[in-house]
Amino acid sequence: MPWTSATRHSPVHTPSLDCAVRVEDAMPVQPGLLWRAISVVGFLLLVGAYLVNQRGRCRPDALGYLGANVAGAGLLAAYSARIDEPVFVGLEGFWCLASLFALLRRQPRSAP
């Protein structure tokens, strides 16, 4: 069968593999609108914290920076679990735990 583009119900044949893949099989669980919103919020928290830190507007041990990393990575880990992506569950889960550890180890700044 010739190469075809993916449609909702038609198989896609790859030249290197002798199998058909349906679009529905590419992502085992289709997340709902709430889960997609959760993933966007998690993404924005992580990227926002990164950009603020890169511009020198906060320190890497700042409460807001670490909190945004914990919350963002935690939300993305939950979303990754929901869509059955174990590699990203591990990645985001590790990021969340590492940020949480740094947050708990954080020394409060003394008042000037």
Short recap of the structure:
With 112 residues, this protein is mainly alpha-helical. It is 59% helix and 4% strand. Strand 1 and strand 2 form a beta hairpin.
Explain the layout of strands and helices.
Elements: E1 12-13, E2 20-21, H1 23-26, H2 33-54, H3 63-82, H4 86-105
Antiparallel strand pairs: 1-2
Can you describe this structure?
The chain has 112 residues and is mainly alpha-helical. The protein has 2 domains: 1-28, no CATH class; 31-105. 59% of the residues lie in helices and 4% in strands. The protein is built from 4 helices and 2 strands; from the N terminus they run ββαααα. It has helices at 23-26, 33-54, 63-82, 86-105, and strands spanning 12-13, 20-21. It has a two-stranded antiparallel ribbon. A hairpin with a 6-residue loop joins strand 1 and strand 2 (20-21). Helix 2 runs antiparallel to helix 3 (63-82) and helix 3 runs antiparallel to helix 4 (86-105). The chain is elongated and about 65 Å long. The termini are far apart. 17% of the residues are buried.
Give short descriptive properties of this protein.
about 110 residues; mainly alpha; 2 domains; two-stranded antiparallel sheet; 4 helices; 2 strands; about 5% strand; elongated; disordered N terminus
What coarse outline follows from CA principal-axis ratios?
elongated
| Distance between the ends | 74 Å
Low-pLDDT segments: 1-8
- Write down how many β-strands occur, each being a DSSP E stretch of 2 or more residues: 2
Q: Roughly how much helix do the residues carry, as a percent range?
A: 55-70%
Average pLDDT: 83
Strand content: under 5%
- CA radius of gyration: 20 Å
